[in-house]
Design brief:
Blueprint: H1 2-21, E1 31-36, E2 39-43, E3 49-54, E4 57-61, H2 69-77, E5 84-88, H3 94-97, H4 100-103, E6 109-112, H5 113-120, E7 123-125, E8 130-132, E9 143-145, E10 148-153, E11 156-162, E12 172-176, E13 181-183, H6 204-217, E14 223-225, E15 232-233, H7 234-256, H8 261-267, H9 283-295
Parallel strand pairs: 4-5, 5-6, 6-9, 13-14
Antiparallel strand pairs: 1-2, 2-3, 3-4, 7-8, 10-11, 11-12, 12-13, 14-15
Helix pairs in contact: 6-7, 7-9, 8-9
Length: 298
């Protein structure tokens, strides 16, 4: 009976995600990139996956969508025959946690407290025009933390640190201290405007502060896995931070001058940031996110 319930849960999430994200998962290919030390990056559809592979087994950071679970498992087998021992979630969004329903059967899921809380109940988003049903038990984190937790695995300390009110209210950044790799989750969209989930505790200025704090702590030569976009480094993260700072300042000054949201959108952004609006969040939506985030503090 349990097996059938699990299959039903996967099918239910698969149908929901297919409708919500409107894509053909059968055409998605999983790309594997060696990052440094024990760490690899998997790209498919949704958030980038971080992987630690070594004598202790396998640990993954995020797991994309449920329909991709078999493809992700096949990609992991190319890295070694070790068993999956831990799953870390950087936040609650379905393009990072959809695979929990499959991988949670194999290994404990670890996440910040707010991630389990949000996955446990229905989430409604006006901005994205989306309603996400509660996750089944198999997909919920079984180990939660408030501020930080460490996993000692494959010869290094993997630090999982909560940075509040950035992309959401449950963001974690993963520091692979021995491999000199950081997985930023969706606190870093490489070369594009980010999603900031204001309805789930996200904050544009909070994200800017968090990214600045992280940059100040990064060691030389660190490799950075973004939530979305290609593998990066400190210079890439600094460019993202400068974009956050400068575009937010532009909107703030226009608001102070009494301009409406539509007027601010009509003026757009400087040419330098044009290419950043070619992703999921275009320039108009990014301006709207900044405007709404700043307005909420008035």
């Amino acid at each position: 009976m349990k097996k059938y319930l699990i299959v039903f849960a996967i099918l239910t999430i698969t149908l929901f995600e297919t409708r919500a994200y409107a894509q053909d998962f059968s055409k998605v290919e999983i790309k594997v990139t060696k990052v440094a030390g024990n760490v690899y990056m998997l790209e498919g559809s949704g958030g980038n996956i971080g992987v630690s592979v070594g004598p202790d087994g396998i640990l993954i950071v995020d797991d994309q969508f449920a329909p991709l679970a078999d493809k992700i498992k096949a990609a992991l087998k190319t890295l070694g025959e070790g068993k999956l021992k831990f799953v870390l979630n950087t936040h609650y969004h379905g393009d990072h946690t959809g695979g929990n329903v499959a991988f949670g059967l194999d290994a404990p899921i670890i996440a910040q407290t707010n991630v389990r809380q949000r996955l446990s109940v229905e989430q409604k988003s006006k901005f994205f025009n989306r309603t996400t049903p509660p996750s089944p038990k198999e997909a919920l984190p079984v180990i939660t933390f408030d501020q930080a937790v460490s996993v000692f695995f494959n010869g290094e300390e993997i630090k999982v640190i909560h940075f509040p009110h950035g992309h959401t209210d449950g963001d974690s950044v993963i520091f692979f201290t021995g491999s000199n790799v950081v997985h930023m989750g969706d606190d870093f969209f490489n070369g594009r405007f980010p999603v900031v989930d204001l309805e789930a505790g996200g904050d544009v200025e909070g994200m800017t502060k968090n990214v600045g704090d992280i940059i100040s702590k990064l060691p030389a030569g660190v490799k950075i896995i973004p939530g979305h976009g290609p593998l990066s480094d400190v210079e890439g993260l600094k460019a993202f931070h400068r974009m956050l700072t400068e575009t937010t300042d532009i909107v703030r000054k226009r608001m102070a001058a009494g301009k409406t949201l539509e007027q601010i959108k009509a003026e757009g952004m400087p040419e330098e940031w044009k290419s950043w609006g070619t992703g999921f969040i275009n320039t108009s939506r990014w301006i709207e996110l900044i405007y709404n985030s700043l307005s909420a503090k008035k």
